[in-house]
Design a protein that fits this description.
Elements: H1 2-27, E1 34-36, E2 44-46, E3 49-51, E4 54-55, E5 57-59, E6 66-69, E7 77-78, E8 93-95, H2 105-112, H3 132-137, E9 164-166, E10 172-174, H4 179-182, H5 187-194, E11 201-203, E12 211-213, H6 216-219
Parallel strand pairs: 8-12
Antiparallel strand pairs: 1-2, 3-4, 5-6, 7-8, 9-10, 11-12
Length: 262
């Protein structure tokens, strides 16, 4: 008799725990859905409603990439001064700031490298040498895959303000404008990016219309551009399925036809 009573009590406790867990799961807020815009880990965006029934992005269930934007300018700010972009109306070139998403950036700029109270003597030369503190925070720093071993951290990061980049004249550059840094060595790519040949933009169709410009580091990881078989700094993902054919069409061979001569 005692055995049956104990079993019944045990079952009651188990059902009680399951019921409580189920109720908690129903009351718990849904987990955030995050997808990436151009490169995993660099331009990730959390899905939310701009207004009821209108999400800011639609995420691919296959790759986790953004399929479309409800508002391409959500979370953007004006790009700032950019040489030779005087034809673009003020405020029509916008970017999404990334500095707020880099966890070590604030600490580097205020706690260790604020230009006034460094914990250790600042480097007096840009010649590569070991930096134990940085290597402890960033173990991959020793394996920089950029420049065929001709570059190191202080070629790109400001000596005194590590939350800033640096140009050829040792003037600081905002981390949200990496194109001004990359253009030091990749002038042809900067020119093509500025002219709309290289990179990605979304927004209005008009040539001088408002557009969100994707900056260099949103697509390229500057610390490992030599990784992988393609040696181009892009992490390959499985492509989306092709669009559904119009009813009555057997294939899309018409797209292989040469363009009409003008």
């Amino acid at each position: 008799m005692k055995t049956h009573t104990f079993k019944a009590l045990l079952l009651t406790i188990c059902f009680g725990i399951l019921a409580a867990a189920s109720a908690f799961a129903q009351d718990a807020p849904p987990a955030d859905v995050t997808c990436f815009e151009s490169r995993k880990g660099a331009s990730e965006v959390v899905k939310h409603d701009l207004k009821p029934g209108w999400p800011n992005v639609k995420c691919s269930p296959k790759t986790g990439a953004v399929l479309w934007w409800g508002d391409p300018f959500d979370g953007t700010v004006p790009m700032g001064d950019m040489p030779l972009l005087d034809k673009v109306p003020k405020g029509n070139a916008v970017v999404k700031p990334r500095s707020e998403h880099l966890p070590l950036l604030a600490m580097c700029g205020t706690a260790c490298h604020n230009g006034k109270v460094p914990p250790l003597p600042l480097p007096t030369t840009k010649k590569p040498h070991p930096i134990p503190t940085m290597e402890g925070l960033l173990p991959d720093a020793k394996n920089l895959q950029h420049g065929r071993a001709r570059l190191w951290c202080l070629n790109c990061h400001d000596v005194k303000q590590r939350n800033k980049l640096v140009d050829n004249f040792d003037d600081p550059i905002s981390i949200d404008q990496p194109q001004l840094l990359c253009g030091k060595c990749h002038g042809d790519k900067l020119r093509d990016w500025r002219d709309g040949i290289h990179g990605k933009r979304i927004g209005e169709w008009a040539s001088t219309g408002k557009k969100r410009w994707f900056t260099c580091t949103e697509c390229h990881n500057p610390h490992n551009v030599q990784d992988g078989e393609r040696n181009r700094g892009f992490i390959q993902i499985e492509p989306e399925s092709p669009p559904q054919l119009t009813k009555g069409m057997k294939d899309a061979k018409h797209e292989l036809m040469p363009p009409i001569a003008h």
